[in-house]
Design a protein that fits this description.
Strand order of the largest sheet: 5-6-1-7-8
CATH superfamily of the largest domain: Reverse transcriptase/Diguanylate cyclase domain
CATH class of the largest domain: Alpha Beta
InterPro entries: DNA/RNA_pol_sf, DNA_pol_Y-fam_lit_finger_sf, DNA_pol_Y-fam_little_finger, DNA_polymerase-Y, IMS_HHH_1, Rev_trsase/Diguanyl_cyclase, UmuC
GO molecular function: damaged DNA binding; DNA-directed DNA polymerase activity
Strand content: 15-25%
Distance between the termini: 49 Å
Largest sheet: 5 strands, mixed
Shape: globular
Number of domains: 3
Protein name: DNA-damage repair protein
CATH topology of the largest domain: Alpha-Beta Plaits
GO cellular component, one term: cytosol
Family: Belongs to the DNA polymerase type-Y family.
Structural class: alpha+beta
CATH architecture of the largest domain: 2-Layer Sandwich
Order of helices and strands: EHEEHEHEEHHEHEHHHHHEHEEHEHHEE
Number of strands: 14
Helix content: 25-40%
């Protein structure tokens, strides 16, 4: 591989270590590195997932972020707190504001609430090289917010991300340039590499590919034939090559569709599921109206309890819609047609796609759609001004309704 022909950038990949747990430790006057703290979704449910564990808790008891609340060992030194997503989002915003003091906005590319890439090309005269800047930002984040971070440095975003995952989380700061790929990355088992999940690992293992070095020396044609574009990307990543943009161009992509789903906290009957579908449909249509869009294809997905199957079906209609009751009745038709009639339900989602501009949709001469559309927009205006729960359908106040409870949450967890 002739790396001389490839662009070289100075990219930092910053990951806030045990972000949720660290934020909670700082809030409660604890040391994120020394004290044991677990962040759970809901302390009232023993089966609630542990969303984050402090490094000390992971080291002493082997607690993982996918563990359940009831699996926590009894230890009086363990602090258990409920997730407050609003706090984590606010801290993430403050971190971004801090970074704005050092780099332009387009140089920051957020990956998640606690992880981001930063391009630091051309800043050597101000702050020194990439390693010096990483050290400076690491110290600044700790001194101003009490938060620790790991930073990977690479010639592109892939190298910065993968070296952060594999090495910097233990070493603090680690760099990987093109010349380091063979030494640092090729011995790594493919299942530990960013972007390669369990299913893909299984397929690659069956092809005799166990580590990144073997992937790099596998036939590119065979990878493309087996996996398509993904196969080509895998091959070039194995050589440390990533040509994705390193500056955020703030390009607004066309909205492809609107969807909303929920994993229920208990088993729902068919009657309760109808209420849930109505609440979800209300939200999907509200979002469509907000974007002045209407859609012709309606999807309904139902998942049964205990992972015992379910179904995903869709139906296209002649005239685009963003009216709640119209979409709801289509969803009910799908539900009554494909539901097995007895299984308890734990997952429901609805979506609307095949979009058109709302102003371009035709009216039905035999149905006063204009008044129904005006009613929807009027309800949206009330919610926009007075809050998402200012006006609700009566079913939302029943035990099966989900809108009121979800309005208190961000990303499925309490704000």
């Amino acid at each position: 591989m002739d790396y001389h022909l490839l662009p070289r950038h100075q990219i930092l990949c910053i990951d806030m270590r045990s972000f949720y747990a660290s934020v909670e430790c700082v809030k409660h006057g604890l040391n994120p590195m020394r004290d044991m703290l677990a962040v759970v979704g809901d302390k009232r449910r023993s089966g609630s997932i542990i969303l984050a564990a402090s490094p000390a808790l992971k080291r002493k008891h082997g607690v993982k972020n996918v563990s359940r609340y009831f699996e926590l060992p009894y230890d009086p030194d363990i602090y258990v707190v409920e997730a407050k997503m609003g706090d984590y989002v606010n801290v993430s915003i403050e971190i971004t504001k801090l970074l704005y003091q050092y780099v332009p906005k387009e140089a920051i590319h957020p990956y998640s609430v606690d992880e981001m890439w930063i391009t630091v090309d051309g800043l050597e005269k101000l702050y020194g090289g990439a390693y010096q800047m990483a050290t400076m930002l690491q110290e600044e984040l700790y001194e101003t917010m009490g938060l620790h971070c790991a930073i990977g440095i690479g010639d592109n975003k892939f190298l910065a991300k993968v070296v952060m995952d594999l090495y910097a989380k233990k070493q603090g700061i680690t760099a990987c340039h093109y010349e380091d790929v063979e030494r640092l990355l090729w011995p790594i088992p493919i299942e530990k590499v960013w972007g390669i999940g369990q299913r893909l690992t299984h397929h690659l293992n069956r092809m005799g590919i166990l580590n990144l070095g073997q992937l790099a020396h596998f036939s590119l044609d065979r990878l493309k034939k087996r996996f398509g574009v993904i196969g080509e990307q895998l091959y070039w990543h194995a050589w440390g090559v990533d040509l994705s943009p390193v500056y955020d161009q703030f390009v607004k992509e066309e909205q492809k569709g609107f969807g909303h789903g929920i994993t229920l906290l208990r088993d729902y009957s068919a009657e309760e599921t109808r209420t849930c579908i109505l609440d979800l449909t209300e939200e999907v249509c509200r979002r469509a109206r907000t974007h002045q869009k209407a859609g012709r294809t309606i999807h309904l997905s139902i998942g049964y309890a205990n992972n015992k199957g379910g179904f995903h079906r869709s139906r296209s209609i002649d005239l685009p819609t963003n009216m709640t009751m119209h979409m709801y009745h289509i969803c009910l038709q799908l539900f009554h047609t494909f539901y097995d009639g007895h299984s308890p339900i734990r997952r429901v989602s609805v979506s609307l796609d095949n979009l058109y501009d709302d102003k371009e949709t035709q009216l039905d001469l035999f149905d006063d759609q204009e008044k129904k559309k005006d009613l929807g927009y009027a309800m949206d205006a009330i919610r926009e001004k007075y809050g998402s729960t200012a006006i609700l359908r009566a079913t939302s106040y029943t035990e099966a309704g989900i809108t009121r409870e979800r309005s208190k949450k961000i990303g499925g967890h309490y704000a």
